[in-house]
What we know:
With 184 residues, this protein is of the alpha+beta class. The chain has helices at 60-64, 128-140, 150-167, and strands at 12-18, 25-27, 32-42, 51-54, 56-58, 72-73, 77-81, 88-92, 94-95, 101-109. The chain is elongated and about 70 Å long.
Amino acid sequence: EWQNRGINMWTIDEGTVDLVQGTASYDLPADTIDLLEHVIRTGSGNVSTQSDLSISRISVSTYASIPNKLAQGRPIQIYIDRGQANPSVTVWPVPDASSTYILKYYRMRRIQDAGSGTQDADVNFRFLPCLVAGLAYYIAQKDPELMPRIPMIQAEYERQFELAAGEDREKASISLVPRMYGVR
C-alpha cells in the first residue's frame, strides 16, 4: 500500500547499465518500480572527459511513432516499460560505437518482504509507529467485534502515515524558470 502512496525515500537506489552498440533494450532489477532520474554518462572514469547528459523520458506512444528504431547515435530518449514480470528500458537512438555510454539512474525499488516475520522490516525508523498502526487497522478488519473501532484505528493509521511521510521527503530547494521562446 505504501508503494502506491508515493516515493518512499529509503527505497531509492542508484544503478548503472553499460550500453552496448546496436542494443536498444535492457532489463532493470526485478524489484524496480520506476526510474526517478536518468542520464547518459560518457567518458566514465576520466576526470577531464566524464559528462552526464540529460536523457528525456518518452511514452510508449512516442516510442511507437519513431520511424527508424534502429538509428544509431548517442541516446537522447528513454522509454521505461514497467512490466509486471521484469521492468526494462529502451533507449533511442540505439547506442553507436563512437563512445562508451553508461545509463546512470536512480530508481524506486519495491519495499522488501520481512520474510514471514523472520527478518527486520524494510522500513525507515520514522515509519515504525505507522507500521504498527497499519497492522492494527488491517487486523481489526478481520475481527467482527472490532468493527465499531475501525474508524478510530484507521484515523490513527492515516495520522501516523502523514507524520512519517511528511518528514520522508526531499529537502533541497527547487527553482522553476519558464522558457520564453518566441514570446512577443
